[in-house]
């Protein structure tokens, strides 16, 4: 739960530190500008709040890794929900309104996570899992979207190192295979989830795993 809080705080700080003109730049999410990604983070924060107050009285059906599904194709930005996010982001017009809303809802989500009982069972998207596993799954969400945020912003800060390491471990659990130790945590996440193509040298290092990437998480 501490890692959820640190990863989420780092991501919100990275957004808060962005110059206004950064919001019109591309993000690492196909078809989304930075402003669209920030709007998605607001929706994510709302989902966290909703899930933490949706208790379940049945046994968990998934753990943190099981929360994630692996899709068979990379996103194109044309999904109806993705397109809705773009329209919502455009409606904000002033980037300050986006950052204000993210700070407002995001701070509430962070406080709710800190107050939640990690052993409590909650329901979301037809799944039941403990709060601890749910928040652990979101470390991967925050870390990947932090990488998406800074994809074309070379001076922005990276996600916390411990969040990168934990996210790599979760991706390896999802993949059922370890990535080569020669690849950094950041490169494993970028290549492993299809955020960039592997170089030839990386493909050689990946060996048989090269034929299985990317693992498109949904």
From TrEMBL:
InterPro entries: DinB/YfiT-like, MDMPI_metal-binding. It comes from the Bacteria. Coiled coil: none annotated. Keywords: Isomerase. Pfam families: MDMPI_N (PF11716). GO terms for molecular function: isomerase activity. Residues 5-149 form the Mycothiol-dependent maleylpyruvate isomerase metal-binding domain. This is Maleylpyruvate isomerase N-terminal domain-containing protein. The lineage of its organism: Bacteria, Bacillati, Actinomycetota, Actinomycetes, Kitasatosporales.
């Amino acid at each position: 739960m501490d890692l959820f809080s640190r990863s989420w705080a780092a991501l919100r700080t990275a957004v808060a530190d962005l110059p206004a003109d950064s919001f019109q730049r591309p993000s690492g999410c196909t078809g989304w500008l930075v402003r669209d990604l920030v709007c998605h983070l607001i929706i994510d924060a709302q989902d966290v709040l909703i899930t933490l107050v949706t208790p379940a009285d049945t046994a968990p059906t998934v753990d943190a890794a099981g929360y994630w599904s692996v899709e068979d194709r990379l996103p194109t930005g044309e999904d109806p929900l993705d397109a809705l996010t773009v329209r919502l982001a455009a409606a904000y017009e002033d980037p300050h309104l986006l950052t204000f809303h993210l700070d407002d809802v995001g701070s509430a989500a962070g406080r709710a996570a800190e107050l939640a009982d990690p052993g409590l069972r909650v329901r979301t998207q037809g799944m039941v899992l403990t709060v601890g596993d749910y928040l652990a799954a979101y470390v991967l969400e925050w870390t990947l979207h932090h990488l998406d945020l800074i994809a074309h912003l070379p001076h922005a800060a990276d996600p916390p190192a411990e969040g990168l390491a934990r996210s790599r471990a979760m991706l390896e659990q999802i993949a059922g295979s370890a990535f080569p130790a020669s690849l950094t945590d950041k490169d494993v996440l970028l290549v492993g989830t299809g955020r960039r193509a592997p170089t030839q040298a990386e493909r050689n290092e990946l060996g048989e795993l090269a034929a299985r990437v990317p693992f498109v998480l949904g």
